[in-house]
Amino acid sequence: MFFDEEIMTLHSDASDATAIMTKLAQQLRTRNMVTDQFLPHVLAREKEYPTGLATGSIGVAIPHTDSIYVNKSQIAFASLTKPVTFRSMVDLNQTIKVSMVFMIAMSTPHEQTDLLSNLMNMFQNQNVLYKLNKSDTKKQVITILNSNNII
């Protein structure tokens, strides 16, 4: 299971993309899921290869870095009270208002590839994204993710 309820933040306040990425990475680090070098590498990678994705009316971001900075595979999830701006992964000159962040920490590269494929499939369903974004409990989030083959 890649989602730990302790590493989910629902309806979080964040001033910007760096703030929410830092918050999620700290949650992963506190539980020893990632190394001390995980956050700096996520932030550096985000500058070079942004992860904002326009998925209709609900933008998402999937920040991540290399598996060598991961001790145990996990995804930190946050829904936001107000969207924050991420640069687009499709057009580097464009920004995306992101309402949900899936910080991916996979300990082996093949897990990341499979997971990204499943996430992209889920992102195509606006109804699922809407329900996920509006979920008030972590149990609701887990149920939605499980029904979309993400867990």
TrEMBL record:
- InterPro entries for this protein: PTrfase/Anion_transptr, PTS_EIIA_type-2_dom, PTS_SugarTrans_NitroReg
Signal sequence interval, chain numbering: none
* Record Gene3D superfamilies: Mannitol-specific EII, Chain A
For the PTS EIIA type-2 domain, which residue ranges apply?
Answer: 1-148
Keyword Transport tagged:
yes
UniProtKB keywords:
Sugar transport, Transport
Q: Which domain of life does the protein's organism represent?
A: Bacteria
Which PROSITE patterns does this one have?
PTS_EIIA_TYPE_2
The protein in question is named PTS sugar transporter subunit IIA
According to its UniProt entry, this protein's organism is: Lacticaseibacillus zeae
Taxonomic lineage from the root: Bacteria, Bacillati, Bacillota, Bacilli, Lactobacillales
